[in-house]
Fold this sequence. Notes:
Keywords: Histidine metabolism, Lyase. GO terms for molecular function: histidine ammonia-lyase activity. By secondary structure, the protein is mainly alpha-helical. The chain folds into two domains: 8-202, Fumarase/aspartase (N-terminal domain) (Fumarase C, Chain B, domain 1, Orthogonal Bundle), CATH 1.10.275.10; 209-513, Fumarase/aspartase (Central domain) (Fumarase C, Chain A, domain 2, Up-down Bundle). It has 20 helices and nine strands. α4 (98-112) runs antiparallel to α5 (121-132), α9 crosses α11 and α16 (390-406) packs antiparallel against α17. The protein is elongated and about 90 Å long.
Amino acid sequence: MSPHQSPVAIGTGPVSALDVVAVARHDARVALSDDARTAIDKGRAVITELAGDDEAHYGVSTGFGALATRHIPVERRAALQLSLIRSHAAGSGTEVEREVVRAMMLLRLSTLATGRTGIRLETAQAYAELLNHGITPVVHEYGSLGCSGDLAPLSHCALALLGEGWVRDANGDRLPAADALASAGLQPVTLTEKEGLALINGTDGMLGQLILALHDLDALMAIADIAAATSVEVLLGTDAAFAADLVALRPHPGQAASAANLRALLAGSGIMASHRVPGACTRVQDAYSLRCSPQVHGAARDTFAHARTVADRELTAAIDNPVVTPDGRVESNGNFHGAPVGYVLDFAAIAVADVASIAERRTDRMLDVARNQGMPAFLAADPGVDSGHMIAQYTAAGIVSELKRLAAPSSVDSIPSSAMQEDHVSMGWSAAHKLRRAVDGLTRVLAVEILTGVRAMDLRAPLTPAPATAAIRASVRRDVPAPGPDRFLTPELDAVVDQIRSGALTATVSDVIGELH
């Protein structure tokens, strides 16, 4: 995406998932719309009226969490917001990826633009300028419980706005926030009443990670079908079980989409035609890992579709506590609780683990001389001297085992915090972190299957593959040599991973048979 394209407009309506990807991964610029500016000013006017009020208003004239009963005098209310950000920027551990931080910041800015938080326009604009100048606050892996928002991660972002803490500049260099702001010609912000809360009280971190993961999984489900097609073909399987009328007997949309992909990918296969001679083939049905691929891949697709529905609803949300209502009230609420997002993050991780699991089983079948329909053991050039893809399957198995552990839900856990005021939390941030790791694992497991399937395809010569699977082989062969004696396999696996992530593999197939579902 060109940095010169039109900025993503941040208005009172929701940003789209594609906007999140554009800003997070492709450095698209952002701009507050006129309606957002009007809404922000209107919401701020409500807070300004309360600034000198002696009544208790959470986060304006009181402390936070278990300290909400402490009345804060007028002259200390600006200091209250600064103390909030400094004390809540308490993350620890590995740095969070740049794209996650940028997604989180965009989503927080989108909520600020609704006018429901009471932020000042100049503060919201300063937040936008961090994104536009490529200044990325250093956020750490640990610190969020997914309730009262992603407090620590968002506090690290807010701290950078104040010219404190650490950031990475557009070149990726780590430096003090004050230096980065100065280099960009930006001034640190001095917070006033309510603004600290407005900057940190949202589920933006977990939502941003969900959106990025779903974007990747949408592409990976097409890759899963591509991988399955190569396995079915080289294992002399049948596409009869993928027939549209059979699939329609169980009308799940994901299953129908996956089966349609498999039919298209396998159409015209000379390898499959070779064993369709009447009376020559005595096998009436394939193993589950082949025959049930549309059912498993389809269930995953439908799971991700549900998660996308939740994400789309969250994109329309204005999450803060307290919140400025359209009729001018300032009300405490519980919308910051991450349960809706945490649940689907966990649900998605379960589906990811199962798609990887069935892919690993197909890979193992290709390597087992007792089940691979006449190919050499482990597809080795000289079995015994050579090990072929034996250890590539180990790699896939090790990843699948890890994915099963990552499928254990985070959202069923809760550790009370803030002296039992915040006595039930979502752990949605943890669920998001493990889903991102799971997506990476699935990518690698599918790469092992595709690399193995392409090797098997060559070993089936002179039988010819389907046009689509032949295109897959040609794409892989641009980076990976044809079968031969054992070679260093890691670069070859990495090459297929890169083709998956870049979209090159899917594009190659689309050029032959059109877009996959």
